[in-house]
Amino acid sequence: MLKIGLTGGIGSGKSIVGKAFEMMGVPVYVADIEAKRLMVSNEEVRKLIISRFGHGIYDSNLNLNRKLLAEIVFNDSESLKAINSIVHPAVRADFKRWSNQYSQIAYVIQESAILFDTGLYRDFDKIITVTAEEEIRIQRVVDRDSAGREQIVERMRNQLSESERIARADFVIYNSTELILPQIDLIDKQIRFLASR
Ligand code: ATP
Known about the structure:
197 residues, alpha/beta, Rossmann fold, binds adenosine-5'-triphosphate, nucleotide-binding
């Protein structure tokens, strides 16, 4: 079974592409969603978060105060590093466990915005990057999140450049005005061929 990473910058269309693969029957692990789940449901992760950020970060029902955590890490890079050093290894281990159940099938996908920013890309056999023109990505996120343009542009500036992501990918899906399903279909065939060798 091959492990495939699916990445792309903000608003590139990672989620939409991940959903398309899922509809074709490919198991897709969405790192962002699983990270949020682990912060609540994994006792070890909870303990580490409490020891770094204090008991007040969870309420009495063990709900994480995400707003408070976001404020802390947004204003303090050491706290951001700390939360990442707790959550990233937990997601990595959880993905390994999760993928074990699919050992008999051709491939699984992990969707993650930060594959190249962390050492995570090394866990994957092949990487797919989704890309779209910057102006289109900005407009899609403005429409999706009702967010301010400046805020989105700022987040993009903090991410890896599109050209770097494309250079480091094994497969690229172009999602500006192109049709994505034929591209996904072709990549699926190529990965299945690689998996069968
Ligand atoms: P983020 O990193 O911000 O979560 P993402 O890469 O997962 O973004 P999506 O959420 O898949 O991106 O796409 C961003 C928005 O653009 C969504 O509202 C999605 O429905 C829309 N979108 C993506 N691709 C297309 C497309 N080809 N045509 C029209 N809308 C699209």
